Amino acid sequence: MKERNLTCIVCPRGCNLTVKFNTDGGIAEILGNACKRGITYAENECTHPKRTVTSTVRCADGRIVAVKTADVIPKERVFDAMREINACRPDGEIRIGDVIIENVADTGVAVVATANG
C-alpha cells in the first residue's frame, strides 16, 4: 500500500499525517490528525492541491508592491499565475486590497495588493 506523509498546515498544531492509498490510487486511510480539518487538508492535498500565491509587482513607475491571490488557486496553475503577475505593470496609486489582476490565469481568483504603493 502506497503512503504519503504530510504536515498539516491548517492550524499551528502541525499534525504529522499519513495518507494511505488503495491500489487504484484512492485514499484508504488518513492517520495522525487531531481534528477533522486535518482530514480535509490531507484529502485536498492528495487529490487537488491548491495554493495561495504571494509575490510582488513592479508598477509602471518602478515601484514594487506586494500582492497575493485573494483565494487559493490550483497548484498546477501557480506558474501561469506568476507569469501574469510578473508581466503586470499597474499604474497610479495602489492601496491595500486594490485588485491588481481580476482573474489570474483564468482561475476566477483576483490578485490583490497587500501593501500601499
* Structural class computed from helices and strand pairing: alpha+beta
Assess the beta-strand content as a share of residues. 25-35%
Major sheet details: 4 strands, antiparallel
Uncertain segments of ≥5 residues (pLDDT<50)? none
Q: Total number of β-strand segments?
A: 9
End-to-end CA span: 52 Å
Rg over C-alpha atoms, rounded to the nearest angstrom: 18 Å
How are strands sequenced across the largest beta sheet?
5-6-9-8
N-to-C series of helices and strands: EEEHEEEEHEE
Described by the principal axes of the CA atoms, the overall outline is elongated
Task: Please give a quick description of this structure.
The protein is of the alpha+beta class. It has helices at residues 36-47, 78-87, and strands spanning 3-7, 16-21, 27-31, 50-51, 54-58, 64-69, 73-74, 99-101, 111-113.
Report on the structure:
This protein has helices at residues 36-47, 78-87, and strands spanning 3-7, 16-21, 27-31, 50-51, 54-58, 64-69, 73-74, 99-101, 111-113. With 117 residues, it is of the alpha+beta class. Strands 5-6-9-8 form a 4-stranded antiparallel beta sheet, with helices on one face. Strands 1-2-3 form a 3-stranded antiparallel beta sheet, covered by helices on one side. The protein has a two-stranded antiparallel ribbon with strand order 4-7. A hairpin with a 5-residue loop joins strand 5 (54-58) and strand 6.
